[in-house]
Structures are given as C-alpha cells and as structure tokens.
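User: Structure please.
Assistant: Input sequence and predicted structure:
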Amino acid sequence: MYIKRNISWKIILRFAWVNIIVFGLWSSAAVFLYHYYGHQGIKMSIPFQPISLIGIAVAFYIGFKNNASYDRFWEARKIWGGIVNYSRTWSNQVLSYVNAHHDENHTDVDIPSIHQELIYRHIAWINALRLQLRQSTSFSLKRKKSVKAYISKRPEDSLHWQNEVGAFLQENEYKTLIRKRNTATHLVRKQGKLLSKLMHEHKLIEHFRHIDTMATLEELYNLQGKCERIKNTPFPRQYAYFSKVFTWIFILLLPYGMVGEFAKLGHNQIWFCVPFCVLISWIFITMEIVGDNSEDPFENFINDVPMTAMCRTIEIDLREMLGETELPDSVKPINGILY
C-alpha cells in the first residue's frame, strides 16, 4: 500500500511514459493527416459532439468500476482489521482462560508452554493465510510484470514458508501441515483440538470458557473465508474488460475530433491539439488503471492491503503479551510502499 501523501512523479512516469508516447504519436498522426489531406480538400476530422458524448459515457462507466474496485479493497482492509482485533482477543483469552484452578492439581502441565503453543500457532496461521492469499493467479501474473521494478524487493521474495510459518510450529507439526492444500484451515483446526484436550483431559479450561474460545476460532474461520472469497472471485470481467475497451475507443477517436476544433483557431494553432489530446488521454487511461489496480487487494501490488506489515504488528503484540522482550522490528516501507 502506498503510504505517502503525494505520489511522486517518478512513479507516475514509470507507469505512464509508454502511454504518453503512444498518445503523442497518435495525436501527431491525426494532425499530420488533417494538415496533409486538408490541402487536397479532404476533411480528416470528426464532429466533436459525438466524441464528447462518448467521453461522458466512458467517464460514468469508469467511475462505476472504480467505486466497485475500491469496495473490494476496503472490504479486504476491514477483514484484516478484524484479524488484528481477534488476534489480540485470542491472545487475551489464552492467557486469561488457560490457567490452573485452585481445586485441581496440574503440576504435570507446563502452562506457559501451552500459552506459547497456542499463541505461536496463531502467528503461524496469520502468516500462512497471508502467503496463501498472495499466491499468483492467472489474473495477476501479467500485471506483476508491469510493476516488477517496485515489487521485486517485496519481503515474500526472500522468505519461505519455513521462516514465516515453520518458525512458530514444532517441526513434525509443520511437516504435516505444509502438505495440506489449505494450511491455514488446519492450523485453526489444531487450535480447536488442543482446546478440547485442555478441557477434557487436563481440566485447564472450564466449559463456558471453552465455548468462548471456540467462538473466537469460528470468527477466525469467517475472516479467512471472506479473504478467500475476494481472492477466488475475480472482479466481474464484463465490467473490467469493457471499461478498458470503451476507454481506448474514446482515446483513439479523440484526436480526430479535437483537430477540427483547434483548426478553427488558425492554421498555426492546429499543433496545440497534440498536447491537449495527450493530457486528456492520460487522464482517462489513468482513471482506468486506478480501478484496474484496486480490484485485487491481495496480489502484493503497490496499492494492496499491507498484510506483511499487519502480520508483523500482530506478531509483536502477541509476543509482547507473552512477556517476550526480544521482538522483531516493524515492517518499514520500501520506496514509500508498505507491504
């Protein structure tokens, strides 16, 4: 997620320079044809009124698409906000509920180790969920090439499942879970099995506390399912595809409508059509790209939900609640982008 208040022109030009050159050449070609064939009495222009109507329709269509794309991003951000909140709730429940009762003998149970196991497995869960959500799909592969310069240093390139998930699990448990198709799902299932064991065998959790902690696990499943729904349901292609088609139709017709209007200002003013066409075309294509880059919030692009930073925040909070003092640093932005 880009976190600076203003987007630098370096980033803008990195994504826009090809389009600007294309728009400039296309507009120049329209002016040249108008000028060349104009001396032969052939009109190489289109009335501006129908083009303006097309532009208005395209603007409305892009606005609808961008609103829908932003809704997907904001829903994803709210889901991960819920994961942060329920992670803290889970840690608080583990530390408060899983304790020896005064009328029971639990000398054979290492309660601090149980606390650590339950909280560490939860940290493994958030990291597993993040890595699963960032697995590439056919919709994201092409776009990743266009932003390669800005995502090449993302943390996921240098980290593996062993470092992100296995570090918080027992080796045998990690080797078993990593073979599962949905590792995150089975991590939550392991939490439930351990809670059941703590209630029935060790008598460390009372019945109502067991129900409360299981409700938290249920909510974690709900949040995971919501993430997977966004990940596995692409933005409706009829909106995304035709938005791009309509935008390019407008851009291709625009110079042939503008050139006639500038020709009315005088013979020497006709070339002013080129910069104005480039500017208008760039505005429309930028509006289209903004929506296109917001429709998939889990693909690790520069405008996506900063799951890496949020996972690190959760890890720091939960380990600090355990009483640990040697904590990892918060994730820092790279080139103004927080991953």
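The mean pLDDT is 84.
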